[in-house]
Amino acid sequence: MKRKMIWFLGAVIAILSAILLYMQWNNAKLMVEKRKEHFDESVLRSLDQASHELERNETFRYLQAVARSHGQELDTIAQYEPPMADEHLRDTDNQIVFQPQLVAGRSQLPNLSMRSRPSANQMPLSFLESVKNAYIYEKGVLDEVIYTILYNASESDLQDRVDANMLDGYLTEALKRNGISIPFHFRVINAYGDEVFRCADYDSIGSDYAYAQTLFRNDPASKMGIVQVHFPTMDEYIWGVAKTMTPIMVFTFLLLIVFCYTIWQLARQKKVSEMKNDFINNMTHEFKTPLASISLAAQMLSDNSVTKSEKMYENLAGVINNETRRLRFQVEKVLQMSLFDHDNIRLKSEELDANNMLESVVKTFSLRIKQNGGVVETCIDADNPFVYGDEMHLTNVFFNLMDNAVKYAKPDEDLHLRICTENVGGNLQITIQDNGIGIQKGDLSHIFERFYRVHTGNQHNVKGFGLGLAYVHTIITLHHGKIKVESEYGQGTTFIITLPNVKN
């Protein structure tokens, strides 16, 4: 499967998983909104019921006081029993007697007295009119009594009219009846916003989101009281409905992460596989050339038909020796990276003068660069060039970087190589800069990976296995240093190595 297809499938499944997560989140959000609406309705209904209970209690207490002032018992006043017609037969002439009565400050429906019980069709219109007038009179008297109660009560102070414990009980009972049993705090304020009293365990946290209900709604506006109730654990209660969705959402999210990681690993393995194939192709080419030269030299030595002079023997021996050394160098480079995989590398660290090492490497490379028309510029003048490390490996690092500068020089422009050392913040900084073809931005983050080479198609004008910079990065890291690269395509490349000085 191609890498593009892997990424395409990964993107499709990731999008579908994201949509699934979004739908689950919306579902949970909808459940929370519904529960919040139900909670608001229940609380407001409970507050209204508690307010009615408080008003009824105040009316009851006022009527009790009136009954006591008339020497009556509370039961006689509070209970209303409609008179029965057969219990009030008073007139012997079969005539209806209408007599409204006021008992202990409250009127009752009139007593109806008759000798016999006529049917509804036999009742005269005057009787029905009398009953209607009696009901209107009764209602008017009751309304006047209630108005008097409320008016007289509104003249009292709010703290005298509302008992905190009683209001707490009413609120608790009303909330329970409406299915709410979580803790709540309340306070009572007057029409001007001044606090009258609060519950004993009142906590102001969350009071900004309190529910409010007017007390004694028939009072004048300036006399009204307001009860404010807030629930400290309201958010937990409302969001508790989403707990059933939480495990599903977490599981889906984890599944999405695992899947994305799997896709990333597949793409990475695919990339590594491609790089290894490229490595094998390069290795085949690198080994094929010296082997062909050795084979040709061996054939010439074994061919008796060819006249061989002393000089020819020397040339053929030199070819075999050089190509064998080249093969051994390539094999050792591969084996070195294999050692790093198994953490078998051992550094022979000692105190080194980096300036002297670089000057030695520059001398070796100068001839090669000058033969190609290039120039080497040096500013190797660090005041403290001493580092602690392995001389062989650090020398290989400098050789690799300079060799890359030669390999990737512009074909139509002379190579200009600049090598400098300086001390920066207690460290030794080594800069190797060239004016070669540069590196594209897409390749910069991968150049230190093993087997990675900038793609050049099937051409092998630039030889190598893609191991050189990986080797450089590994050696610098083992020396507790850092290496970074700055490059602009078509303008050149700069490698900056930072190594700790001996004292650090």
Keywords:
single chain; 504 residues; alpha+beta; five-stranded mixed β-sheet; four-stranded antiparallel β-sheet; 12 helices; 13 strands; 17% strand; elongated
Descriptive account of the structure:
53% of the residues lie in helices and 17% in strands. The longest helix is centred in the first third of the chain and has 67 residues, at 3-69. The relative contact order is 0.08. A five-stranded mixed sheet has the order 8-10-11-13-12, with helices on one face. The chain is α+β, with helices and mostly antiparallel strands. Strand 12 and strand 13 form a beta hairpin. The two termini are 51 Å apart. Helix 1 packs across helix 3 (125-154) and helix 9 packs parallel to helix 10 (391-407).
Radius of gyration: 51 Å
Give the tally of β-strands: 13
Shape estimate: elongated
Q: Cα distance, first to last residue?
A: 51 Å
Q: What composes the largest sheet?
A: 5 strands, mixed
| Mean of pLDDT | 76
What spatial order of strands do you see in the largest sheet? 8-10-11-13-12
Helical/strand content category: alpha+beta
What is the number of helices? 12
Order of helices and strands: HHEEHHHEEEEHHHEHEEHEEHHEE
Give the amount of beta strand, in percent: 15-25%
Helix content: 40-55%
Low-confidence stretches: 76-117, 456-462
